[in-house]
């Protein structure tokens, strides 16, 4: 270590120990390298003006995280004696650490390319659903090649620095010195914990560009933070109002007490319903919204011949958020989706309304329904779950780790609807697709884009499967008396310069029923949680309603609003103003222009009261067990 930094390193090492300090140095170097690589990837989305703050805050986050991450090395340093044995234990530990840090670098690059953020709740889920995630990674990337390349890079790095590394690893200390080192690292860890709990120096929320805030973060820090914040108690973390006034406003906002028992003005139409929630279908993919790549010819025909909702917004960024909004008609509550929480059975759902009317109610999914807790949620709420285990192998032309090809999924759905028709019962069938998901693989020869070449192929194949499904359904005796509703679960990407980029939540919804629904465009600003009330309104279906969503077709311009969120920030879009509720009882507001730009503006007290009414009200209803299906 004959460099300009050697004297400094030696002085610090006397207080901290050579081995722990080496491990911290490796962590800090890898963290800086990761940040630089991500900066280069996001170079078109960031401004140079904020880079000093990004680097300064990033260094602080890295140091705080490193002081905690290095504690196992401190323990090893304390326990190992001054002997040759220590060298032979330290050497593989250092090599393994270098390998894991390089592996994490590659993982963060892939995660950033997919989601535009550092590790978050999605990464936490990846540890839970290892079979699907590892399978997806194997199908999407040359894993063996990457792992081998990382091993070679580790060995090359160690060989280049072999002399200083060997000298450092052979360094020994007395027991007294090691005890002093452990005490010093304990103090550093306490200081790091204090910084985590609220040092303003490490607060990235002051950065206006969300890419800057993400880049200033540390991957391990954000991963642990996401794990800790799986559930957020609204009243503890967010701005609140008295519950009585919240409830009163909530009744008014969801159209008043009349929605508690909605009496249809016309006789109810007992039509079959097929609700297709499409994986990652951003509105921007459809020709109906200006796309000229020809990815969705079938959906564009349905949009032209049916009812197209042009200003609908997803409530979140994950499939479970879409399923939550569509089935429960609730705004998102902070933390994990209700679909994945304990105690989520016997809730008031779209399925419970149809079941109360004598419908067969099914959830049809091409993957294994234990993923994302789908089986438990839908099964516990009165749906018959039809997943990969129910689909015979002889009808599957192709499958990947996420499930069967969408065409096989739709074939199974046709069979399920046929069963109800033969039994003389109407049916409500909620179908969840999977093919428009990395690795974007599907049967060859279906479309003009080869399998596994990217998102465009996934979109076009799913469109092909929907078109095929509609052609086959049109030959069924139940087709004329069926309403088809097609809506996305969320957009393909939610990353943007702002925390909640409105344009990254814009999704399509199409209602198609030639004998019952006239073609038209519906331009009301609305939310994914309005799907259920709108569908029931189309059927003139009288029902006792606990839904917080509204019937879009009965909305006036004054009723328009939308809800968008990530795991912690809750957005309320109304009158061109996005009001954002954040943890630590923070509130921010932005003026939205063309859904693509957001300018900070003053918080409107009336809009803030409405946002709190919806979000606090929904959280209280769920927590207090008041969102249960009637018995």
From TrEMBL:
<dbReference type="InterPro" id="IPR000917">
    <property type="entry name" value="Sulfatase_N"/>
</dbReference>
<feature type="transmembrane region" description="Helical">
    <location>
        <begin position="141"/>
        <end position="161"/>
    </location>
</feature>
<feature type="domain" description="Sulfatase N-terminal">
    <location>
        <begin position="272"/>
        <end position="540"/>
    </location>
</feature>
<dbReference type="InterPro" id="IPR050448">
    <property type="entry name" value="OpgB/LTA_synthase_biosynth"/>
</dbReference>
<feature type="transmembrane region" description="Helical">
    <location>
        <begin position="87"/>
        <end position="106"/>
    </location>
</feature>
<keyword id="KW-1003">Cell membrane</keyword>
<dbReference type="InterPro" id="IPR017850">
    <property type="entry name" value="Alkaline_phosphatase_core_sf"/>
</dbReference>
<keyword id="KW-0812">Transmembrane</keyword>
<dbReference type="Pfam" id="PF00884">
    <property type="entry name" value="Sulfatase"/>
</dbReference>
<feature type="transmembrane region" description="Helical">
    <location>
        <begin position="63"/>
        <end position="80"/>
    </location>
</feature>
<feature type="transmembrane region" description="Helical">
    <location>
        <begin position="182"/>
        <end position="202"/>
    </location>
</feature>
<keyword id="KW-1133">Transmembrane helix</keyword>
<keyword id="KW-0472">Membrane</keyword>
<protein>
    <submittedName>
        <fullName>Sulfatase</fullName>
    </submittedName>
</protein>
<feature type="transmembrane region" description="Helical">
    <location>
        <begin position="21"/>
        <end position="43"/>
    </location>
</feature>
């Amino acid at each position: 270590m004959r460099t300009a930094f050697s004297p400094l390193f030696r002085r610090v090492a006397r207080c901290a120990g050579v081995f722990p300090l080496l491990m911290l140095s490796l962590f800090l170097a890898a963290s800086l390298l990761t940040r630089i690589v991500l900066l280069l990837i996001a170079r078109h989305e960031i401004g140079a003006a904020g880079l000093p703050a990004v680097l300064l805050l990033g260094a602080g986050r890295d140091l705080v995280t490193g002081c905690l991450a290095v504690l196992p090395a401190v323990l090893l340093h304390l326990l190992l004696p001054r002997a040759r044995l220590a060298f032979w234990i330290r050497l593989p530990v250092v090599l393994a650490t270098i390998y894991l840090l390089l592996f994490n670098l590659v993982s963060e690059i892939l995660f950033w390319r997919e989601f535009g953020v550092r590790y978050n709740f999605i990464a936490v889920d990846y540890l839970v659903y290892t079979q699907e995630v590892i399978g997806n990674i194997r199908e999407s990337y040359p894993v063996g090649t990457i792992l081998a390349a990382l091993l070679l890079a580790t060995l090359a790095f160690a060989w280049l620095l072999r002399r200083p590394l060997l000298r450092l690893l052979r360094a020994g200390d007395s027991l007294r010195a090691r005890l002093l080192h452990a005490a010093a690292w304990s103090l550093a860890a306490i200081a790091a914990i204090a910084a985590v709990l609220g040092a303003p120096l490490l607060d990235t929320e002051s950065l206006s560009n969300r890419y800057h805030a993400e880049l200033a973060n540390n991957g391990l820090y954000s991963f642990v933070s996401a794990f800790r914040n799986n559930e957020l108690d609204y009243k503890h973390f967010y701005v609140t109002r008295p519950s009585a006034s919240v409830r009163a406003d909530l009744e008014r906002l969801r159209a008043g007490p009349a929605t508690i028992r909605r009496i249809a003005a016309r006789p109810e139409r007992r039509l079959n319903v097929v609700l297709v929630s499409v994986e990652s279908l951003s509105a921007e993919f459809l020709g109906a919204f200006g796309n000229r790549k020809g990815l969705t010819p079938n959906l564009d025909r349905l949009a032209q011949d049916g009812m197209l909702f042009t200003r609908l917004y997803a409530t979140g960024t994950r499939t479970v958020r879409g399923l939550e909004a569509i089935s429960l008609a609730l705004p998102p509550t902070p933390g994990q989706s209700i679909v994945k929480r304990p105690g989520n059975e016997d809730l008031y759902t779209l399925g419970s309304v149809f079941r109360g009317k004598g419908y067969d109610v099914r959830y049809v999914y091409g993957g294994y329904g234990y993923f994302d807790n789908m089986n438990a949620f839908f099964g516990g709420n009165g749906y018959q779950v039809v997943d990969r285990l129910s689909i015979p192998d002889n009808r599957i032309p192709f499958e990947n780790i996420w499930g069967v090809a969408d065409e096989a999924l739709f074939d199974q759905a046709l069979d399920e609807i046929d069963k109800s028709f033969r039994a003389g019962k109407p049916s409500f069938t909620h179908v969840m697709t999977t093919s428009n998901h990395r690795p974007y693989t599907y049967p060859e020869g279906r479309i003009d884009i080869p399998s596994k070449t990217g998102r465009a192929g996934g979109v076009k194949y799913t469109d092909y499967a929907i078109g095929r499904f509609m052609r086959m359904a049109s030959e069924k005796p139940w087709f004329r008396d069926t309403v088809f509703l097609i809506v996305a679960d969320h957009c393909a990407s939610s990353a943007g310069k702002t925390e909640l980029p409105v344009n990254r939540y814009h999704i399509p919804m199409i209602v198609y029923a030639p004998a019952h629904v006239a073609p038209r465009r519906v331009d009301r600003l609305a939310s994914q949680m309005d799907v259920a009330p709108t569908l029931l309104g189309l059927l003139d279906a009288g029902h006792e309603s606990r839904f917080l969503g509204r019937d879009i077709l009965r909305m006036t311009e004054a009723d328009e609003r939308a809800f968008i969120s990530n795991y912690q920030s809750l957005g309320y879009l109304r009158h061109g103003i996005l009001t954002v509720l954040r943890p630590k009882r923070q509130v921010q507001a932005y003026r939205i222009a063309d859904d693509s730009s957001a300018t900070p503006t003053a918080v409107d007290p009336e809009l803030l009261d409405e946002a709190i009414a919806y979000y606090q009200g929904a959280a209280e209803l769920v927590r207090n067990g008041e969102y249960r299906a009637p018995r």
